[in-house]
Amino acid sequence: MKILVVNCGSSSIKYQLFNMEDESVLAKGLLERIGLEGSVLTHQPAGKEKVVINGDVENHSVGIKLVLDALTDPSHGVIKSMKEIDAVGHRVVHGAERFADSVLITPQVMDALEECIQMAPLHNPPNILGINACTELMPGVPQVGVFDTAFHQTMPKHAFLYGLPYEAYEKYGLRRYGFHGTSHRYVSQRAAELMQEHMTNLRIITCHLGNGASIAAVKHGKSVDTSMGFTPLEGLVMGTRSGAIDPAIIPFLMKKEGMTPEQIDNYLNKKSGVLGLSGISSDFRDIEEAAKDGNERAQLALEIFAYTVRKFIGSYAAAMGGVDAIVFTAGLGENSIAMRDKICLGLEFLGTRIDPVKNNVRGKAAEISVDGAKVKIFVIPTNEELVIARDTKEICANLV
Ligand code: ADP
Predict the structure, then answer these.
(1) 88, 108, 130, 206: which has the fewest Cβ within 10 Å?
(2) Is residue 392 part of a domain?
(3) Nearest protein Cα to ligand 1, atom 23
């Protein structure tokens, strides 16, 4: 069974074609600058040279067609015809309370996705465009939606409700949804495998630290709390996002600086976080470099980031009545030895400590806590695409 996994952003399409016999990736790629001049498709067939295809791609439908052409091209393609694609799995950002699991795409599901647009006006529309493009180009091929929010639908009400009038939840669905769910699900399950324990015996704190960053408390295999909220802006200080702030700052700044709702949204989402704090970059590599050279604001940005992560770890240990494992994943979590060290310094009270030798690892699964630690610390590379492919396979296998 061959499954195409598609992740559509507003101006990009990421894809991977899986052979599910052995879960190998036959090809993967990224199409950027959709709707802009000079679109670029970077296509990587397994075991072959990368190919760069330039052209103007005016919309997602043309983009998906370009991806299918690349996959079936006689020289750099990996399949003879698109008939070899048995199913398509889509990453969908927001499933609100409608979707607690991955789902076969039907016209009813598409209607529900349209309704979810109000919750994720930036993210869901391109996901819908991608699904529509595949329906048009691959009629009859089953498609599955895998939601970033789904894993967190197990959160209890006391964890997902804000201290707002209850009507705000009933009327507008104002509550914590959480994101990165596919990643938190995958790495928590991998941690249980590495510990040779059943998920139902474990309390795991998963730290997805990339450009966007979130933490989840996974108790007995279920998400019971997470740091992102109604939108992916809440929680940790991130690359360019503020994370949690006193909400009274928003009207204050709007008045003082004469900002419109769009401007304050942009300020909090694009100009804040470690970028705003350091004044250097949103990329942790640049900030770590500047901090090493003695830049104080860079050092402060790293300190604030590590401190917020550490505080969440402590609060989630309290939320679960203890913790058995802490997992670091995504770009920063998988690669920054220094940041993992900084975050964990001060967690000894939980019964854990990083082993500096074991921590000398990047991008591969490893336990990095000292031998005999009561709480294990892991680095586990995330693989959201594989989860999407597996869910798609499972749902499509049950079709008659
Ligand atoms: P996203 O998917 O949210 O865009 P990623 O998970 O790819 O993000 O993470 C990207 C971030 O990871 C970059 O901003 C960078 O700061 C950080 N990162 C990647 N590699 C390293 C590294 N070797 N050292 C420090 N930070 C890194």
Answers:
(1) 108
(2) no
(3) 335
Check residue 30 and give its pLDDT.
Answer: 97
Residues 108 and 256 reside in one and the same domain: no
Ligand 1 center to residue 284 CA distance, Å?
7
Is residue 164 one of the residues assigned to a domain?
A: no
Q: Are 93 and 178 in contact (CB under 8 A)?
A: no
Position 244 confidence tier, pLDDT thresholds 50, 70, 90? very high
| Ligand 1 lining (C-beta closer than 6 Å) | 210-212, 239, 283-285, 288, 330-332, 335-336
**Predicted local confidence at residue 398, as pLDDT:** 81
Residue 190 domain-assigned (yes or no): no
Residue with tokens 């949804």: 177
pLDDT at 118: 85
Q: Exactly one of 56, 148, 293, 391 is catalytic; which is it?
A: 148
Sheet strands (E) in the chain: 2-8, 13-19, 24-32, 39-45, 51-55, 87-92, 103-104, 143-147, 203-209, 213-219, 222-226, 325-329, 366-367, 376-379
Are the beta carbons of 333 and 370 closer than 8 angstroms? Answer: no
Residue 317 sits in a domain whose CATH number is 3.30.420.40
Q: Which domain holds residue 328?
A: 197-384
**How many domains would you assign to the chain?**
2
Rg of the chain over all Cα atoms, to the nearest angstrom: 21
Domain assignment present for residue 394? The answer is no
pTM for this prediction: 0.96
| Pairwise CA distance, residues 209 & 383, whole Å | 14
CA 214, 215, 217, 222 dihedral sign is positive
